[in-house]
Amino acid sequence: MSSSGQIAPAEQVCYVHCNFCNTVLAVSVPGNSMLNIVTVRCGHCTNLLSVSLRGQMHSPVPPAAQVQ
Q1: Quick check: is 67 in a domain?
Q2: What are phi and psi of 40, to 5 degrees?
Q3: Residue 20 belongs to what domain range?
Q4: pTM
Q5: Does some domain include residue 66?
Q6: Which part of the chain is the YABBY N-terminal domain (predicted)?
C-alpha cells in the first residue's frame, strides 16, 4: 500500500462528436487527463479533433442520443 494515500485514477469513457462526418466517438481517457485538452482522430473520416475534456466529465450520454 502506498504511503501517500493516493489511488491511481481509473479510465473514463467520454463521447466526442465529429463535426466533419457527424459520428459520435467513444473515447477512453485516463482519469489524470480529464482536465486537459487532448487530440482525437476520428476512426471514420480520420479528421483530427482537439477536445477539452473539462466539459465532458459530467456528460455520460452521447450528445446524439439526447432529446432536444
Answers
A1: no
A2: -125, 135
A3: 12-52
A4: 0.57
A5: no
A6: 9-62
DSSP assignment string, 2-16: -TT---PPPEEEEEE
10 Å Cβ neighbour count for 57?
13
Is residue 40 within 8 Å of residue 25, measured between CB atoms? Answer: yes
Please give the Cα distance from 29 to 13 (Å, whole number): 6
Q: Is residue 18 part of a domain?
A: yes
The string of pLDDT tens digits covering residues 3-44 is: 555 555 688 888 889 999 999 999 888 777 767 888 899 999
34-41: long-range contacts, CB 8 A cutoff, minimum separation 24: 34/9, 40/16
Does 40 reside within a domain? yes
Total count of domains within the chain: 1
